[in-house]
Design brief:
Largest sheet: 8 strands, antiparallel
Shape: globular
Radius of gyration: 17 Å
CATH architecture: Beta Complex
Structural class: mainly beta
Distance between the termini: 32 Å
CATH topology: Metal Binding Protein, Guanine Nucleotide Exchange Factor, Chain A
């Protein structure tokens, strides 16, 4: 759907693909819901207090957050938290406390153990915040 007079038809087609179009993991673009996309196939790294928490070429970006595949996360730095929140379209989020050299960053990582159908791309993935650098 092109905005009146925007002149960006090609860009808008890229951002909102036709029904049935799919992206491969190395392709930068947004899915039909236009809320999230696939990160470029460059390595994305999450660090805190000098430690690499996660690094991957396969992150999925949802609402500006990189979701790392769990196998690309240093799970030995994570401790389960009792915190849970609910997103209206993704479902229930569970949290981890990040522990690096005895320093703790409470609820700095989260994941959706059973994401809604609208958010299946983030199943088995972890995102970070609260001072964790991603780039």
């Amino acid at each position: 759907m092109q905005a009146q007079g925007s002149g960006h038809a090609d860009l808008e087609k890229f951002l909102r693909p036709s029904e049935g179009e799919r992206y491969d993991p190395g392709h930068v673009g947004w899915n039909r819901r236009s809320r999230h996309g696939v990160a470029p196939s460059m390595s994305i790294r999450a660090t805190w207090k000098g430690a690499v928490v996660a690094e991957s070429t396969r992150t999925v970006v949802v609402e500006g957050n990189h979701y790392f595949p769990i196998e690309d996360v240093r799970t030995e730095l994570l401790e389960a938290s009792e915190t849970h929140t609910r997103c209206p379209w993704k479902g229930q989020a569970n949290y981890y406390t990040l522990v690096v050299d005895g320093q703790r960053n409470a609820d700095a990582a989260w994941y959706y153990p059973d994401p809604s159908e609208a958010a299946t791309e983030i199943a088995g993935r972890v995102a970070v915040w609260r001072g964790v650098s991603v780039g």
